Predict the structure.
Amino acid sequence: MKLYFVFLSILFAGRVFAQAPVSNVDREIVFKSVNVIPMDRETVLRDQTVVVKNGKILTIGDNAKVKVSNGALVVDAKGKYLTPGWSEMHAHVPAIDDLTPMKEVLMLYLVNGITTIRGMLGNAKHLELRQKVRSGEILGPNFYTTGPAFSGQTVKTAARGMELVKEEKAAGYDYLKLLPGLTKETFPGIAKTSAELGIPMVGHVSFSVGVWAAIDAGYSSIDHLDGFVEAITPGIDTLAEQETGLFSAWTAYSADMSRLPKLIQALKAKNIRVVPTQAIAERWLSPLPATAFANDPDLKYMKPEEVRNWMNAKNANNNNPKFSKERAEAFVDVRRKIILACQKGGVQLLLGCDAPQVLNVPGFATHHEMKYLTDAGLTPFEVLKTGTVNVADYLKKPDSGVIKTGYVSDLVLLNGNPLEDINQSRNIEGVMIGTKWLPKAFIQSELKKLQKQ
Ligand SMILES: [Zn+2]
């Protein structure tokens, strides 16, 4: 009789396993015989047992020594690798009034092992979304969000800029999103009020503000390397903004790399974080033609009309009279050098790729970004830090980003070692978000539901 019950419960556990996330509130989930990549140092702890419960890592130890309680869900992880979940610090969640498409985007991130995202263009509905994710009503990554954007359109006067900072602080947004189009008149008031109220500025650097003023004003993170190429390009002040191209794509070939150390030192001195979003340069603004991306398997998760828009945007870039293959190569190369200089110069990089954005599908694009960071010269360990340890420091969440007893159990189980090959970050066997374990069967069934074509 007892045996029959054991059999039944295994059968039941197996079923739950395939169809739904397994919650470990008051139940242990055990990763047995797993290779742990702790991320607080560059090492692999071989053949460990990791026990998690109620959203925390309870125990890590040698297989033989760790006791597992009755009723635990045991995941046979022999030969697999356990790493902290990654953060996507330049995510976009649809800024609409309907939660359904938002939930779909959150799921795309989550099944890709992204356990924290920072939404970079928020609205009031995102505050509700954040609340529902926190309470567990909606399954998704830990969610932070900016408010509506500060741009040339939304901020026409200095007074309006300051007022908008106060409104967004009062509404409860985490960050202020700065877009292009701010001026020497409107920017200082926004910066001053942001500092006074303690709601950080993130995102773009307006062309007429320039990166030096942005650094002085103490941005929390500068995204897209916006303003960086301009800052090291001689004679940029003689050009109009539209002559330079997006992120100075048309002028990067004339950048003077000897000016770079001064920029890196200034960023470091102010502890300004940098979110490269290199995927934009390597895909949309790259020397490659649109056809090079036409068979990208990620695209099936986007609506056909969206993919058409992306292809049109890619073609428009490559058909611009200012585009040339050589210039695009120079642009990508200059940006890689800037990214590596940030890493070597002690500027903290945060992982982020700006999806959904031309040829960048949420979740999947974060893995492309990791690969592009290694192309820039970072080691896989340094790349993985940009999405884990560096983010924990940035968000002031000292019990995250590392696999250690007492830390939060936001984890990814991989089939290969990403320290040896960064592409293994995509080779996902399961994701643990707080108290929930999402096994591969669940991930696959969600991905199937999320296909748009
Ligand atoms: Zn963006």
The chain has 16 helices and 16 strands. The mean pLDDT is 94.
